[in-house]
Amino acid sequence: MTTIATRSHAQVAAHVAATIDGIFAMIDGWRDHLEALLGADAALSAARVDPLVEAFAVPAVSGETLLTGAGFVAQPGVLADAEWHLAWWLGGTGRPLRRLATIDDPSHDQFRDYTALEWWRVPTTTGGRHLTGPYVDYLCTDDYTVTITTPVRVDGAIVGVVGADALVDRLERALLPAMRTGETPATLVNASGRIVTSTDARREPGSILRTEGLTEAIRGASAEPVPVAGGAVLACGDTSLALLVGV
User: For a disulfide at 235, which of 105, 122, 175, 221, Cβ 3.0-4.6 Å?
Assistant: First the structure.
């Protein structure tokens, strides 16, 4: 008979943090790489940016990976040869590799202003990294997705964001085995209390938890459990995700 060791809540939270931190570190590396190369250019252009992005985005979404999309999205008007521009590649486990096709003409009926979307709006407003979702990504995957983005700066000015998409079902495969070995049932939520995944099948990804005091507890969460109605919340490192346990 196989015995499965029980993990403490802190160990489960640390496992989540380690998984997401790996994606964060990769994206931070892409940002640093682009800033170093673009900062040396007198003029920015899609012709210059696209090969640089393709060089890291394509390997990131090729083969067995948590990621299903990766790339760079430009600040409107910053590129000399493209007013609006996405250099974004899609792929991942079991999916064909392709570049995301977009409509960049604002007069077109199907044009979408990406600057209104959370994954763009928040990091370009705060100047820091942001995790968006889970949400149904109608632009790329038509599936529940988490998007992580961070600003890219040249001479101190934001010229776009670099980031990656991860499908929720792939994150579940990476996170749920550890969450199921925790001391009590566990639900992983974002900073707004939106469910990423849960050991409770009744709690579906993308839905909002209405637990009393949850958002306040998430804001104050740390490595030590913060009490909330019926349970507690632990921060998953600096990922902005939190583990709700015992509820």
Answer: 221
**Cβ pair 145, 134 in contact under 8 A:** yes
Q: Within 13 Å of residue 97, how many CA atoms lie on the same side as its CB?
A: 11
With CA atoms as reference, report the closest residue to 24 among 241, 247, 244, 246.
241
CB neighbours of 139 closer than 8 A, spacing ≥ 6?
A: 100, 112, 114
DSSP bridge partners of 99: 89
Give the SS3 label for residue 242. strand
* Mean residue pLDDT across the chain: 92
pLDDT the model gives residue 2:
47
Q: pTM for this one?
A: 0.92
Residue range 199-217, pLDDT digits in tens: 999 999 999 998 888 989 9
User: ∠78-79-84 over CA atoms, to 5°?
Assistant: 85
